[in-house]
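Worked example

This section walks through a single chain of length 505. The input is the sequence exactly as stored; nothing has been trimmed or padded.
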Amino acid sequence: MINHKLPLKPLNTTPHMLSNFLLHPSTIYIILHTLISTCLAIRIIMRRTPTGVALAWLLMIYAFPLIGTLAYLLIGERRIGSSRSHGINTIRSNFSEISHKILNPQSCRIDWPHEHSSAKAMNKIGTNLIGFETAKGNHLELFSDTTNILASIAKDIDSANSTVLIEFYIWNEGGLADEVLNSLVRAAQRGVKCIVLIDQLGARPWWKSQQPQQLRNAGIQVRPALPVGLFRTFIGRTDLRLHRKIVVIDGKVAWTGSMNMVDPRFFKQDAGVGQWVDAMTRIQGPIVSPLACTMLSDWALESGESLLDLFQQLNIQPTPEVGSADIQVVPSGPGQSGDGLLHMILELIHSADTELILTTPYLIPDDSLLRALRGAAARGVHVQIIVPEKVDSFLTRHACRSYFDDLIDAGIEICLYRDGLLHTKSITVDKEISMFGTVNFDMRSFWLNYEVALFAYDSAFTHQLRDLQQSYLNDSNILDKSSWNARPFTQKMLENTLRLASPLL
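Given that input, the structure is written out below as tokens.
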């Protein structure tokens, strides 16, 4: 039999066909995507980004090529811009000179042997990494009724003689927040120097209202912090936010805490989470000056004014001792403090011997915080974390719940607050030392927001704060492990999926 085989024709690949293939839109897209993704992957690796954050970004970039790449270019790095970076460096160089002027050396001589065993070490961390020493002789009064808070701030402003310094993340029209605004106008009419700094994105609806112009018409200096816009996207990240809440009157009285300049009865009533529940502390004593310094530093960054000149113009002086509390002011933020605040909180958790209670609206810890909490429970510390039952963010709510399993398995009690969106940020340890301020227990607060916290090495204030936490516990349900484990698989899947994005939230 004759085997007739047809000869194989060589593949006729002409230069024209190759050119068409290479110029095809899909080929160009694949090549560009591969090049861009590879370059970004190398950049992420070489920047030594925390492992969880790095893996989350790599997943985003490769799973969602266009969206992931664009998102990383916009918010993937803590870019603060060369101008802001230069301003921060200038302010930091001024801090040593200013700190000697605003804190009397005598006020910084703390009797450490009579404080909690970890207090001296925490003071060193805060001083070396951030800049302000602990000061003694302070009096703090804790307020938890928001109506009383707003009325009391307005009353303090009405008594101002020389200066009023204010910065907030959110200002919202309506209710008693308008009375605070009116008190500012009255103060300006008396000749009081009033300076107001409000985050542009956090208070976006307010900036579109008539109130900013009303303040300016009264002679009050008003500025947006961290302005956003398309052009600024190319300079630095536009999601860095001023999350601090500070009021300083005459350099003698200060307020700080978790509450924005809002009346909860008129704020986010359609969010379905109830009224926001907050706390603030009214402060007298030496640490009023570091709080004023923190606010004026933020103002100097936005206005371009010299921080030293501002202190001279406003005549910020050391505040005399009026109480017995040893307090350290700890500001934090990109370009300012690195991970100093995180170190402080880790040291606070590690210092617990018998009891650790934490309140936060958003619970998205990184690996170091998660290990610290589980380690505290493992050595016999009674750990309770109080979070709101309802949260206003879908992504955050479910990402937060993905950590409950790890915490419950370690013996930590998750307490779900029923009576509104609990917004207070606090930690108490052994009823002896505490943290109170603006920082949430999530990565955004530790890495992206400009925050301020008070570390109280004082049992009297810590007892006030512990009593407030107990009132939250009385209105909370402890999450039952068996019922929590019995939740539907679809819910677990959603939570664990969103947990992958938790380093980015």
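What to look for: Residues 35 and 41 are 10 Å apart (CA to CA).
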